[in-house]
């Protein structure tokens, strides 16, 4: 059975495609491509059909990640198809919880940085869109830091399914 993860940010052109690319690479490194599917979407449809922001693409490529992406909006009907919905900040978390058709679906929603080693109260990945390139680099660092913990959690879920 395939485990499905979807990363969600605002417009699906900066943070969520970055998280999708990084996590897809972690999944491949772990040899789990056949068992884990990774995707992303936005809470809004402003950029539907567009590629990722050029700064996102540039930062990802410089760090060796793939960058194929087409933005789309998250649909409530997807909850039934997903095992985990990863919000990039608290505003996405709230928006996704409002969209969740059931309590079971709402329990699938988590903040990405809740899987990171840093802990603390501020688990948001800041939106780099209105700033310079440094914000995209910072975003990548946060995404990478949390991706290892997320992969460990997904592995645990996969092992639980196999038992």
Automatic annotation (TrEMBL):
Active site: 9, 15, 127
Pfam families (alphabetical): LMWPc (PF01451)
InterPro entries membership: LMW_PTPase (IPR050438), Ptyr_pPase (IPR023485), Ptyr_pPase_sf (IPR036196), Tyr_phospatase_low_mol_wt (IPR017867)
Domain Phosphotyrosine protein phosphatase I, residue spans: 3-153
Key word Metal-binding present: no
TM segment ranges: none
Keyword Nucleotidyltransferase: no
Highest taxon of the lineage: Bacteria
Reactions that this protein is recorded to catalyse: O-phospho-L-tyrosyl-[protein] + H2O = L-tyrosyl-[protein] + phosphate
The protein's Enzyme Commission number: 3.1.3.48
Keywords of this entry: Hydrolase, Protein phosphatase
UniProt GO MF annotations: protein tyrosine phosphatase activity
Family, per entry: Belongs to the low molecular weight phosphotyrosine protein phosphatase family.
Record's protein name: protein-tyrosine-phosphatase
Organism expressing this protein natively: Streptomyces lucensis JCM 4490
Taxon lineage: Bacteria, Bacillati, Actinomycetota, Actinomycetes, Kitasatosporales
